[in-house]
Design goal:
Length: about 725
């Protein structure tokens, strides 16, 4: 699966090598010839890809050859990124008018030393590419012309986006009625009645649970409701913590470590909703459960929260043994039925035939494909989205006759059908955008703007001025292919958030397993298995994290952290002796840094050397202190802050900024409204606070708001802004 992504990596590396070769700064280093040869060699390897992909299933050496090529392609991409980093560093040096010739000569950034270092790296890569070329000949791999599709989208007056709304879920009325009846009229007399919803992947267990959760009868019967996505790791404390966070809406109130104290705190919170009622009932949904070794521990906690009867728990799972463990009575479970062929066809038709009507020769093929879905709604949705992109008899027949369906007697492999949809995405860059989503946990709620900025920061959208349009295009492609779901919109119809089905998330993991890592409690990777990781999401502080972080840090392009990773770097440095908080500036490839909502106390000084950083999110961080020199983040395009203390001094030097939702006027040097004067790339919405600190008309005119043509809304606030109240 990774070969398609490899094509995108090679294509991007070829483009970057040719671009750097023509850069004025690189000419000073006299690297044009080597960079041109590197670009040509990478392009040559790209020509072998299609033949190699077809032959790897029959020849193990070809599969190993592809892995070696992936390693070299990543190495080349990192080296070219180092060139870019040095060009940015020199650009900043000129801007700041620093002239320390003797010091520079002794430093590793000196032109001569830099050239020697990079020359050795390029020579090494070229030698590896030569060996790969010789091996390709020995494997009789054929070169095929590579067609580079331009990512720039064609604009139309009206863009049609076919996204199936949750309100149009097909054929689940009886299922909803049965589960609701099991909850509100339990057959057992337990304090907590458990209803498992069990079935194969893609059958609609979560969708059914959501319909039940929002059902009017359920709302009337239960006073308090919570929804927790459990996934692979059944952690009782995390489940109780998620319940508390949903009940309070406060993620900063820490739960006690002691389980009894935790139960008491939850009980108090639930009792607050009692009002004038004699007793209160709660409903808990545990979605996507795989392991219930600690089920009895959770059950005891749930009984402790409320001793009254009538409480309910829904457990969705693919595993029969999980359902058997959690249910009290054999008839207290529900297995959603498979849809009828006509119901699958109605889903496909709704997605594939919008907005124009269907030609007569397509309907029989479409109905046959619906039959092949074998009643699995997820497959009908995803394949319907794929069919909507290519509405021709030839294409639909290809899908119908694909080997992924198997025979009617065989077990349907859901992942194979999903892979078919992924394979038919129109460009390698779009496939990279999809694969990138694997670094987020299951049931993660993606924000539209956040994800597009991530793709942009990673270079998946190219480097032209049309990146925003390309991001919109790619997002629409994935939405209309039903690779995203649970879409939430604002009152104007703009898409705000969405999620991935857990089976689709499994697919993204399988196509990106060499590049992304979401580190959680049960992560067991050894450091020697992390050499390919480019994107890291730290969800907890596990025992192996220091070793893994040390291994991946120099190559990271994205870093998300739910813990104070900077504070812990100092401690880890004692263990690893290779990486600590002062070394954060060595993350030369880092494009995206999000530490929002954590308890991080300070950004280290070395943050100011992240010259490639494009997005910095510093939201919901009470007490965070910033280092001086953040104006050196020369590539920063998107800055999210919510307090005056987190606004960098001399922000006006960040001339690439496109997103700055809020600006705080100050009377101190480097904080006046004139800092906005040079930020003419700002777009979207800008709120300007503390306007009372503007001294006079001349200073106000220095903001040059008339030049910010891409801003669509400006809010003027003379007092404190909402985020400070």
């Amino acid at each position: 699966m990774a070969e398609i992504l490899l094509g995108a990596i090679l294509e991007e590396a070829v483009s970057k090598a040719n671009s750097i070769a023509t850069n004025q700064t690189s000419r000073i280093w006299n690297f044009k010839k080597e960079l041109k040869r590197l670009g040509d060699s990478l392009e040559l390897m790209e020509a072998f890809l299609q033949d190699a992909e077809e032959k790897q299933t029959k020849k193990d050496p070809v599969k190993l050859w592809l892995q070696r090529l992936k390693d070299v392609a990543d190495e080349a991409a990192d080296v070219l990124d180092e060139f870019d980093y040095e060009i940015l560093r020199r650009k900043l040096k000129i801007r700041n008018q620093i002239r320390r010739k003797v010091l520079d000569f002794l430093s590793s950034n000196n032109s001569i030393l830099f050239r020697l270092k990079m020359a050795n790296k390029i020579t090494d890569i070229l030698e590896k590419l030569d060996r790969l070329n010789k091996d390709a000949s020995s494997f009789s791999l054929q070169q095929r012309a590579t067609e580079h599709v331009s990512p720039v989208p064609r604009r139309s007056n009206v863009e049609t986006l076919s996204v199936m709304d949750d309100s149009t879920i097909v054929g689940r009325e009886n299922d909803v009625s049965k589960v609701v009846d099991l909850l509100v009229n339990p057959k057992d007399e337990q304090v907590v009645s458990v209803v498992p919803i069990v079935g194969m992947a893609g059958l609609g267990k979560t969708a059914l649970a959501k319909l039940v959760y929002d059902d009017l009868r359920v709302k009337r019967h239960f006073d308090v409701k919570s929804w927790v996505c459990v996934s692979d790791h059944f952690d009782v404390k995390k489940i109780l913590g998620a319940m508390f966070e949903q009940l309070t809406g406060d993620r900063h109130t820490s739960m006690p470590e002691n389980m009894d104290a935790m139960i008491l705190k939850l009980k108090e919170k639930i009792e607050q909703a009692k009002g004038e009622k004699d007793q209160i009932k709660y409903l808990l949904v545990l979605d996507d459960v795989w392991d219930v070794k600690k089920w009895e521990d959770l059950k005891l906690c749930l009984k402790g929260i409320s001793t009254n009867g009538g409480n309910g728990v829904i457990v969705t799972t693919r595993k029969e043994d999980v359902a058997s463990t959690v249910q009290a009575l054999s008839d207290q479970r529900h297995q959603p039925r498979r849809l009828e062929d006509e119901e699958c066809w109605s889903i496909i038709k709704q997605l594939a035939l919008t907005p124009s009507p269907m030609s007569h020769d397509l309907e029989p093929i479409g109905k046959e494909i619906a039959k092949q879905c074998r009643g699995v709604p997820l497959l009908a949705k995803v394949i319907g989205g794929t069919m909507s992109k290519e509405r021709s008899r030839c294409t639909w027949l290809e899908i119908q006759k694909s080997g992924v369906w198997g025979s009617p007697e065989s077990v349907l492999k859901v992942e194979s059908v999903l892979k078919l949809s992924y394979d038919r995405l129109p460009s390698p860059s779009l496939k990279k955008c999809f694969a990138y989503c694997a670094m987020f946990p299951k049931d993660y709620c993606f924000e539209t703007e956040e994800l597009k900025q991530l793709w942009m920061a990673e270079g998946f959208l190219g480097s032209s001025m049309a990146m925003v349009d390309i991001g919109d295009k790619y997002l629409n492609e994935l939405l209309s292919n039903s690779l995203f779901q649970d879409v939430k919109k604002d009152k104007f119809g703009n898409i705000l958030t969405f999620k991935m089905h857990d089976s689709v998330h499994d697919l993204s993991l399988s196509v990106s397993k060499f590049d992304t890592l979401f580190f959680q409690d049960n992560s067991t990777l050894a450091s020697n298995e992390c050499s390919h990781i480019r994107h890291l999401n730290v969800g907890c502080n596990g025992e192996s994290l220091p070793e893994i972080f040390t291994a991946v840090a120099p190559k990271l392009y994205s870093l998300f952290s739910e813990i104070d990773v900077f504070k812990k770097l100092s401690r880890w440095g004692i263990i690893t002796r290779n990486f600590n908080s002062d070394s954060l500036g060595e993350l030369k490839h880092l494009r995206y840094l999000d530490i929002s909502g954590t308890y991080i106390e300070a950004l280290p000084k070395s943050t100011t050397k992240l010259y490639h950083l494009q997005t910095l999110r510093l939201l919901d961080l009470p007490g965070l202190t910033l280092p001086d020199g953040l104006e050196n983040l020369i590539s920063l395009k998107h800055l999210y802050i919510d307090s005056k203390e987190l606004q960098p001094v001399n922000i006006g030097k960040l001339t690439c900024l496109q997103t700055l939702p809020i600006f705080f006027v100050g009377s101190e040097r480097g904080r006046s409204i004139k800092e906005l004067g040079s930020l003419n790339e700002l777009r979207g919405e800008l709120e300007i606070c503390h306007l009372g600190d503007v001294r006079d008309k001349q200073e106000a005119n220095g903001a040059n708001l008339h030049r910010k043509e891409k801003l669509c809304k400006v809010i003027f606030a003379f007092e404190r802004c909402d985020s400070e109240k």
